[in-house]
Amino acid sequence: MDSSIFTGQVQSVMQNLIFTMLERLLNKLDNKSKSSGTTTATTTSGSTTSTGQAATGDFASLINQASEKYGVNPNLVQAVIKAESNFNPDAVSSAGALGLMQLMPATARGLGVTDALDPAQNIEGGVKFLSQLLKHYNGNTQLAVAAYNAGPGAVDKYNGIPPYRETQTYVTRVLGYFNSSNEWQA
Predict the structure, then answer these.
(1) Which of the residues 68, 84, 124, 183 is marked catalytic?
(2) Catalytic residue check, 84
(3) pTM of the shown model
(4) What separation, in Å, do the N-terminal and C-terminal C-alpha atoms of the chain show?
(5) Using CA atoms, how far apart are residues 113 and 108, in angstroms rounded to an integer?
């Protein structure tokens, strides 16, 4: 058998497998949403999760544990979660980012996260990544938060916050939450 035909067949099988897995995930999320009367959309306001429970109360112990383990201020973690998913553990972005801290699948895998929709794994991975970024940028919260949004490559390329409107707005939003003495918390 010609190896190029075999390679093409393997690629086709892998693509079908990925599409099937994504379809199952979306169906699972859709069914979960229908059964609980919630949505999986990421929101940008409010201080409750889609189930109506206090946002930080549901995840406070996970945030505190991961924050202590990786040496990250838990208020910064909460600010990132607020900006990323508004404490919705089922959030899925149009770009494919998953969970509370909106981890991209490749980033999640690199951080050892096997289920990015599991709040414990998601928070653990997100805080680990935030810790790595803070170390990379010598504790500069603005640059670490910008890199969390746009990627460290973009921050390094521009030697600062990239000139992307989305990233600039994101940094302002996260730091606003972080500096607001957590008035947005329930």
Answers:
(1) 84
(2) yes
(3) 0.70
(4) 64
(5) 5
